Amino acid sequence: MRTADAIISLLLLGFSIYVIVGALHLSYMRGGVPGPGFAPLWIGLGLGIASAANLIRTWTTLSPKVSLVEPSAIPRLVGLAVMTVLWVAVIPLLGMVPSLALFMAGIVWMLGMRRWPILFLLMILVPLGFYLVFERWLGVPLPRGVFR
Predict the structure, then answer these.
(1) Among 80, 103, 88, which residue's Cα sits nearest to residue 145?
(2) C-alpha torsion sign, points 79, 81, 82, 88
(3) 59 burial class (0-12, 13-18, 19+ CB within 10 angstroms)?
(4) How many angstroms separate the Cα of 21 from the Cα of each of 8, 9, 48, 49, 137?
């Protein structure tokens, strides 16, 4: 497990350096507002710091005797990963807001929430909040899919 942690930490550290270098080629500020290099720079720095901390922790602690993931949780994790990939695949078809509503329903159901009022509330409020923040507040157009 220590070897896998160290390898993943090194790969993520390398990727964070790549992101930071790419972000330095973009403008940090543009007209008094964050430019296209702002978010990648800070995300790359955060990823780099977290990866370095994980690498140091891996080198300085003993190997854990317990598994990171219980075998009974693996089907749920695989299901969540498959649902996420499917969500990303249907965004161009259905648009961001409807696909996010379906994704929220699937994820919440898969994680064990079976109360329909709460499920429907999340299906409505999360995509609505996403729409209001990105489309209305920030002016970022979201994919509309067939609902153009």
Answers:
(1) 88
(2) positive
(3) exposed
(4) 20, 18, 12, 15, 30
**Tens of pLDDT along 38-72?**
899 999 999 999 999 999 988 888 766 666 678 88
User: Concatenated DSSP letters for 44-104?
Assistant: HHHHHHHHHHHHHHHHHSPPPSS-SS-GGGHHHHHHHHHHHHHHHHHHHHH-HHHHHHHHH
- Which pTM value belongs to this model? 0.59
Distance between CA atoms of 99 and 101, rounded to whole angstroms?
5
Give residue-wise pLDDT tens across range 16-29.
999 999 999 998 88
Q: Where are the domains of the chain?
A: 2-60, 71-137
Burial of 142 (0-12, 13-18, 19+ CB in 10 A): middle
In this structure, what token pair is assigned to residue 7?
A: 């390898």
Angle subtended by helix axes 38-60 and 2-24, to nearest 10: 160
Q: Which two tokens stand for residue 35?
A: 């430019």
Tokens in use for 11? 């790969």
User: Angle, to 10 degrees, between the axis of helix 96-110 and the axis of helix 74-94?
Assistant: 170
* Inter-CA distances, 83 with 68, 105, 131, Å: 22, 11, 21
